[in-house]
Write a structure and sequence with these properties.
The complex is a heterodimer.
Chain A lengths: L10 H26 L14 H8 L7 E5 L3 H6 L4 H8 L23 E5 L5 H15 L5 E6 L6 H12 L4 E7 L19 H4 L7 E4 L3 H16 L5 E6 L17 H9 L2 H11 L4 H24 L5 H4 L14
Chain B lengths: L1 E4 H15 L3 E5 L15 H9 E3 L4 H13 L3 E8 L7 H14 L9 E6 L14 H5 L5 E3 L4 H13 L4 E6 L6 E4 L12 E4 L4 E5 L3 H14 L4 E5 L2 E3 L3 H11 L2 E8 L4 H12 L9 E5 L8 H7 L3 H12 L1
Parallel strand pairs in B: 2-3, 2-4, 4-5, 5-7, 6-7, 10-11, 10-13, 13-14
Antiparallel strand pairs in B: 1-8, 6-12, 9-11
Helix pairs in contact in B: 1-6, 3-4, 7-11, 8-9
The chains are: A alpha/beta, B alpha/beta.
Chain lengths: ~325, ~325
C-alpha cells in the first residue's frame, strides 16, 4: 500500500464519502435481495466491499468530468448522482429505468451525470475513455475522464493499447484498477506475470507505480485528488491500482467458494464502511451524525425500491426505438 | 468539374468535411505524415495540422475506442482502419460497443463517427488483406454501411456519412483507388440509403456493389450484344438499404441477379434476394441468381484470385441462367 501520509479532506467531504459508501452498500444489498425475490432477472455483479474506491474518486470529481466503468458499475453510476430510483428500475426491467429497460444491470448509464456507461466486455472502455479524454483535450473543456476497471482487465490487449495512446497523447484520463484479487473465479495472481497487475505495468508506459488502499476512502480520495489534478493541469494520464476485496462472488451465480476462509475473514475485518465509521468517530464526529447519514441512506434505498417497483414494464412501442438518432430502427425503405 | 482518381476523391471528401466543421478530426495508422498506405490521405496533414490529422500506433482497438469516446464528448471523428481485415482485431469496439451504445442506453449516447477502410480483393494481397467485410458490418444492428463505387460517390457518400448522427462504416474497394471519374466542383453531398440505376435495361436487374459495379456494367455491355437488356443497380448503401429502387426495377424486368465480392454464405446479396423473393415473388419469371466469390479465403496468385472473384464472364453466365 501507499506509504504516503494522507492529508485528510474537510469533514464535510469525508461525511459525504461516508454517505456515498452507505448508499452504495445499501443499494447493492437491496439489488441482491431483489434478485433473490426474482424481481431482477439476468445477472448482476455487485461491488459490495469496493465502495471506498468509488466514493474516494466520486468526491474528487467535477460535475462535468466523465466516468467509465464496467459491468460491476451500479455504484460508480450511482455516485455520479444518477437517480437511484431510475437505476433500481433499470435492474427491475422497468420502462422508468435509466436506460428504459434496454441496458440492464451491466449497462447502467447516465450521460446527464457524466456516467458514460458500464461496459460489459473486459477492457473495451479503456480506449473509449481515452477517446473521451482526447475530445476534452481538443475542445479544451478542462474535463478529466476516470476509467474504472478490474484486475482481470490488465491482461487484455485493450488495456495496453489504451495506456500507450493515452501517454503518447498526454490525455487527461485516470485509469483506476480495482484489484479485488479475483478476475471472475480465478485469482489474478495465478495468471499474471507480475505481483501488482496494474501498478507493475505502469513503468512500461512511463507512468508512476501507484498503489492505494482501496478500502480506505481517505487514502483513495487523496490519491484521486492528486491524479485528477495532474490530468486537469495537462500532466497526462495516471494508472492507479486500488487494493480491495469483493465481499461476494463474481456474479449472482457465484457463491465464491474458491476463496480461503482466512482471506475472506481478514478482508471482512477491513470492510471499508465500519472501519471508516470508527475513524470518523475517533476524529470527533458525533455518532448521531453518522446514524443520521445511515438512516437517510436506508430511506433513499427504500424509496428508490418502491419507486422502481411501481414503474411500468416497457411496452411493445419501446422495442424498436433508439437504434438510430432519429429515434427509430428502420434499416430500409 | 474535375477528373479525380478514387484515391484523390478520398482526400477531397475528408478535406471538404474538415473544412466545413472544426469538430471533424481524422486519425489512423500512417494517415498523416505518410499520407496513407494507399496514398488516399495525402495533403491532409499539411492542410489541417497535426492535431486534426493524427498518426496513431498500430492499435486498432485504441483507434476505434478513441473515435467512439471522442464522439461521446463533442467531436465528429473519422477513423481509418488500413485494411478492413483488421476489423477483426477491433470488432469488439465496432460490433459490441459502437453499434450498441445508443440502443442500450435508450438514446443517451450519440455516436456521430465514421470508420473508413480499404476493402476487398483484386490486388493479390492474399487472404488476410483482401476480404470483403461489408456483410459483417451489415449484420450488426446499429451500424450504417456504405460502399462508394466511384470518385463522385466517394466524396458525396462520405460527406453524408460524416454529417450523419449515427456511426457509419465507409467501405472503399481498394481495387478502385486508381480508377477515375468526374467530380463536380464545390461541395458534393449525397444521401445514405439511396441506390442508383447506373445502366437502364428491361430484361434483367443486376444488383452490384463496390468493385463489382464496373464489372456488372461491362457484363451488361456484353449481354447487350446478345440482345439481353440488363439494368444495373449500384446498391451503394447496405444500411440503410434502398429496397424501393430494387423492387421497382425487378417489377419491370422480372429477373434478378446479385453480384457480390464477398464469400457466398450470408453475403449482402442473400438479404436482398430474400427481400425480392418475399416481396416481389409474383413478378419474378425465373430463379434469383447470386454471383459471388466461392466460400473460400481469397488466394494470392493472380490466376487463382481471378477465378475466385466474380469476373465479367461469370456475371454474364449468371445473367444468362437468370433470363433462360
Amino acid at each position: 500500500m501507499s506509504s504516503e501520509v494522507v492529508t485528510l479532506a474537510d469533514e464535510a467531504v469525508r461525511l459525504d464519502m461516508y454517505r456515498m459508501m452507505q448508499e452504495a452498500r445499501l443499494f447493492e444489498r437491496r439489488a441482491q435481495d431483489l434478485f433473490l425475490e426474482g424481481l431482477v432477472k439476468g445477472t448482476s455483479h455487485l461491488a459490495l466491499g469496493q465502495e471506498a474506491v468509488a466514493a474516494g474518486f466520486a468526491a474528487a470529481l467535477r460535475t462535468d468530468d466523465l466516468v467509465f466503468c464496467t459491468y460491476r458499475g451500479h455504484v460508480h453510476t450511482l455516485l455520479r448522482g444518477a437517480p437511484m430510483g431510475a437505476l433500481m428500475a433499470e435492474l427491475l426491467g422497468r420502462a422508468t429505468g435509466i436506460c428504459g429497460g434496454k441496458g440492464g444491470s451491466m449497462h447502467l448509464t447516465s450521460v446527464e451525470h457524466g456516467a458514460m456507461g458500464s461496459y460489459a466486455i473486459v477492457g473495451a472502455h479503456m480506449p473509449i475513455a481515452a477517446g473521451a479524454a482526447w475530445a476534452a483535450q481538443e475542445r479544451e473543456t478542462g474535463q478529466v475522464v476516470v476509467c474504472f476497471f478490474g484486475d482481470g482487465t490488465t491482461n487484455i490487449g485493450a488495456f495496453h493499447e489504451a495506456l500507450n495512446m493515452a501517454v503518447v497523447w498526454k490525455l487527461p484520463v485516470v485509469f483506476v484498477c480495482e484489484n479485488n484479487l479475483y478476475m471472475e473465479y480465478t485469482p489474478i495472481g495465478e495468471v499474471t506475470a507480475v505481483e501488482h497487475p496494474a501498478a507493475d505495468r505502469a513503468s512500461a508506459y512511463g507512468l508512476a507505480s501507484i498503489i492505494v488502499d482501496g478500502n480506505d476512502a481517505d487514502a483513495v480520495h487523496a490519491t484521486a485528488l492528486r491524479v485528477v489534478d495532474r490530468a486537469r493541469s495537462g500532466g497526462g494520464p495516471s494508472l492507479v491500482e486500488a487494493k480491495t476485496y469483493r465481499h461476494g462472488g463474481h456474479s449472482r451465480a457465484d457463491p465464491a467458494k474458491y476463496r480461503p476462509e482466512a482471506e475472506v475473514k481478514a478482508w471482512l475485518a477491513r470492510d471499508p464502511i465500519p472501519t471508516y465509521r470508527e475513524r470518523l468517530l475517533d476524529d470527533g464526529v458525533e455518532s448521531a451524525t453518522l446514524d443520521k447519514i445511515e438512516g437517510a441512506a436506508l430511506a433513499s434505498v427504500d424509496r428508490a425500491t418502491e419507486e422502481a417497483k411501481a414503474g411500468p414494464f416497457p411496452d411493445a412501442s419501446q422495442l424498436m426505438t433508439e437504434l438510430w438518432a432519429d429515434g427509430g430502427s428502420t434499416w430500409r425503405n | 468539374m474535375a477528373e479525380l482518381t478514387y484515391r484523390e476523391a478520398v482526400a477531397r471528401g475528408i478535406a471538404q468535411e474538415m473544412e466545413r466543421d472544426p469538430t471533424v478530426y481524422f486519425l489512423g495508422e500512417d494517415v498523416a505524415a505518410a499520407g496513407g498506405v494507399f496514398k488516399t490521405t495525402e495533403g491532409l496533414l499539411e492542410r489541417f495540422g497535426p492535431r486534426r490529422v493524427r498518426d496513431t500506433p498500430i492499435s486498432e482497438q485504441a483507434i476505434i475506442g478513441a473515435v467512439m469516446g471522442a464522439a461521446m464528448n463533442g467531436l465528429r471523428p473519422i477513423a481509418e482502419i488500413m485494411f478492413s481485415d483488421f476489423f477483426a482485431v477491433c470488432w469488439d469496439l465496432i460490433a459490441n460497443q459502437i453499434a450498441k451504445a445508443r440502443y442500450m442506453t435508450n438514446g443517451q449516447v450519440a455516436l456521430p463517427l465514421v470508420i473508413r477502410t480499404a476493402n476487398g480483393g483484386g490486388v493479390r494481397f492474399g487472404a488476410q488483406h483482401s476480404q470483403s467485410v461489408e456483410s459483417w458490418a451489415m449484420a450488426i444492428p446499429g451500424l450504417k454501411v456504405v460502399v462508394p463505387s466511384s470518385p463522385v460517390d466517394m466524396v458525396g457518400l462520405f460527406a453524408a456519412a460524416v454529417r450523419d448522427p449515427d456511426p457509419v462504416i465507409v467501405v472503399e474497394p481498394k481495387v478502385l483507388y486508381s480508377t477515375k471519374g468526374e467530380v463536380p466542383d464545390g461541395e458534393v453531398v449525397d444521401r445514405l440509403g439511396t441506390a442508383r440505376v447506373v445502366r437502364a435495361g428491361e430484361d434483367v436487374t443486376i444488383c452490384a456493389l463496390g468493385a463489382m459495379v464496373p464489372k456488372a456494367v461491362a457484363a451488361a455491355d456484353v449481354l447487350a450484344g446478345d440482345g439481353v437488356s440488363a439494368e444495373v443497380i449500384d446498391v451503394r448503401s447496405l444500411v440503410p438499404l434502398d429496397v424501393t429502387t430494387v423492387l421497382a426495377s425487378v417489377g419491370r424486368t422480372s429477373r434478378f441477379v446479385t453480384v457480390e465480392e464477398n464469400p457466398r454464405l450470408c453475403g449482402w446479396g442473400a438479404e436482398v434476394a430474400s427481400i425480392v423473393a418475399e416481396e416481389s415473388f409474383y413478378s419474378l419469371d425465373g430463379p434469383i441468381i447470386r454471383v459471388t466469390t466461392p466460400h473460400l479465403p481469397l488466394p494470392s496468385a493472380d490466376a487463382l484470385e481471378d477465378l475466385a472473384i466474380p469476373s465479367v464472364e461469370r456475371i454474364v453466365e449468371g445473367v444468362r441462367r437468370a433470363v433462360h
